[in-house]
């Protein structure tokens, strides 16, 4: 139904407008009596064999929704009814910011991909916290970043503000230094500034009565040498793990008219590279830390390949948009077939 009826209609509308329309429609849908039960019956797969305990958290299944879809924590409860084991909100920044100028979101239909240059548009961490206070059971990851106007030398302060604000309201944290859409942000992936940032967060984390897992989200464009640095940094700072990967700045092999738009590319063109990064990190670290695999998961096979490459959990974004919520169910069913 989604691919034959709903997607053709949605894909004839500007992608950013569709995003907000979908949020409004889902919010209204779940106000209808019995709607939550009906949706869950159609999409949620419940089975003990799907449960995963990763960095001290028990996930009901290993398929999550990646950051960027529910930036402001406005729809995490509703989205969880489509079968996700966890939902990652953000990227959130200390202060609200509008992001980059529109148009900033592009569908590459021929490539089953999306290019975005959103630029951390969000309403600020304080607003998101107020919504998260109403959470009753959804496992939440908090993806945090810095404001565009904050210089890199003061970036640690922005991450700490978000960390402190979200601490009581999320189950794990994700440090995003790999988005290509905030000027100079990726410079924070260099070994010295990244080590400083993660050490600062982790030192504060360990002082608390109960610490929270901190993960690092990395770009797929890192070289093998840089990936080895990432392994060293995780060992040195003691953070919980990695999310591999964010969007790419590569445009290799694209055929769609909008392929030259600037921004981060996600979807099918990223499938192979994201899996390569997962396998490299897993093998070179001797599986020393958990990896959440994300990037180009368009089919159950793509998800299984990432799990077999060394990922403990996976996340969807572009695949969810192109294939619909049925993809979550199909991945969980495929995992069960192989268990």
Walk me through what this model shows.
- 38% of the residues lie in helices and 16% in strands.
- By secondary structure, it is an alpha/beta fold.
- It has a single domain, classed as TIM Barrel, CATH 3.20.20.
- Strands 3-4-7-8-9-10-12-13 form an eight-stranded parallel β-barrel, surrounded by five helices.
- Strand 8, helix 7 and strand 9 form a beta-alpha-beta unit.
- The mean pLDDT is 96.
- It is a peripheral membrane protein.
- It is found in: Cell membrane; Membrane.
Give the key terms.
globular, 339 residues, alpha/beta, TIM Barrel, eight-stranded parallel β-barrel
What is the overall number of helices? Answer: 12
CATH domain fold name: TIM Barrel
Question: What's the CATH C level?
Answer: Alpha Beta
Radius of gyration: 19 Å
GO molecular function: dihydroorotate dehydrogenase (quinone) activity
Family: Belongs to the dihydroorotate dehydrogenase family. Type 2 subfamily.
Subunit structure: Monomer.
EC number: 1.3.5.2
Q: How are the SSEs ordered, and which strands pair?
A:
Elements: H1 2-10, H2 15-29, H3 35-43, E1 52-54, E2 57-59, E3 63-65, H4 76-80, E4 86-92, E5 105-108, E6 113-116, H5 125-132, E7 140-144, H6 155-166, E8 172-176, H7 191-206, E9 214-218, H8 224-237, E10 241-244, E11 264-267, H9 271-284, E12 291-294, H10 300-309, E13 313-316, H11 318-323, H12 326-337
Parallel strand pairs: 3-4, 3-13, 4-7, 7-8, 8-9, 9-10, 10-12, 12-13
Antiparallel strand pairs: 1-2, 5-6, 6-11
Helix pairs in contact: 6-7, 7-8, 8-9, 9-10, 10-12
């Amino acid at each position: 139904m989604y691919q034959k009826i709903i997607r053709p209609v949605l894909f004839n509308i500007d992608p950013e407008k569709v995003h907000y329309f979908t949020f409004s429609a889902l919010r209204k849908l779940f106000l209808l009596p019995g709607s939550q039960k009906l949706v869950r019956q159609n999409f949620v797969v419940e089975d003990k064999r799907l449960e995963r305990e990763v960095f001290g958290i028990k996930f009901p299944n290993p398929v999550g929704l990646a950051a960027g879809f529910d930036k402001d924590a406005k729809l995490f409860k509703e989205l969880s009814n489509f079968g996700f084991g966890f939902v990652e909100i953000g990227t959130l920044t200390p202060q609200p910011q509008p992001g980059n100028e529109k148009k900033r979101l592009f569908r590459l239909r021929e490539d089953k991909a999306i290019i975005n240059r959103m630029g951390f548009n969000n309403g600020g961490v304080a607003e998101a916290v107020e919504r998260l206070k109403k959470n009753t059971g959804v496992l939440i990851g908090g993806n945090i970043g810095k404001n565009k106007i904050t210089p890199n030398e003061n970036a640690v302060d922005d991450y700490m503000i978000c960390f402190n604000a979200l601490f009581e309201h999320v189950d794990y944290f994700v440090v995003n230094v790999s988005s290509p859409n905030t000027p100079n942000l990726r410079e924070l992936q260099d070994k010295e500034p990244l080590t400083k940032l993660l050490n600062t967060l982790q030192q504060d984390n360990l002082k608390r009565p109960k610490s929270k897992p901190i993960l690092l989200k990395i770009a797929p464009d890192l070289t093998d040498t840089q990936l080895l640095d990432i392994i060293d940094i995780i060992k040195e700072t003691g953070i919980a793990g990695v999310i591999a990967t964010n969007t790419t700045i590569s445009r290799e092999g694209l055929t769609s008219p909008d392929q030259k738009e600037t921004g981060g590319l996600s979807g099918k063109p990223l499938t192979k590279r994201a899996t390569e990064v997962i396998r490299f990190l897993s093998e070179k670290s001797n599986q020393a830390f958990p990896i959440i695999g994300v990037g180009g998961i368009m089919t159950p096979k793509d998800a299984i390949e990432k799990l077999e490459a060394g990922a403990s959990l996976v996340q969807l974004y572009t695949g969810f948009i192109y294939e619909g919520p049925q993809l979550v169910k199909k991945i969980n069913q495929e995992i069960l077939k192989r268990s």
